[in-house]
């Protein structure tokens, strides 16, 4: 993880998932720095919230599009 990570809102969904994967691998490794565990957890939580929000928004948009097809 970088010293100054990019704001979560500026990441693409794939970048956010990639960073989450990287954080997870770091936290699961034997060399995980316990002093950074809180920062890793905080960042992972931010990333998860943003990904969940984007997935929910995409799901709602797709449902709306499909509903429009059914009504035609």
TrEMBL record:
It is an enzyme of class 3 (hydrolase). It comes from the Bacteria. It holds the Pfam family Exonuc_VII_S. SUPFAM superfamilies: XseB-like. GO terms for biological process: DNA catabolic process. One of its GO terms (molecular function) is exodeoxyribonuclease VII activity. Its EC number is 3.1.11.6. GO terms for cellular component: exodeoxyribonuclease VII complex. The keyword Lyase does not apply. Keywords: Cytoplasm, Exonuclease, Hydrolase, Nuclease. The keyword Nuclease applies. Belongs to the XseB family. This is Exodeoxyribonuclease VII small subunit. It comes from Paramuribaculum intestinale.
């Amino acid at each position: 993880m970088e010293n100054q990570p990019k704001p979560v809102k500026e990441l693409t969904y794939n970048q956010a998932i990639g960073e989450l994967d990287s954080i997870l691998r770091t936290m699961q490794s034997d060399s995980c720095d316990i002093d950074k565990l809180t920062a890793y957890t905080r960042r992972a939580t931010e990333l998860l919230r943003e990904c969940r929000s984007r997935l929910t928004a995409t799901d709602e948009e797709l449902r709306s599009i499909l509903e429009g097809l059914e009504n035609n």
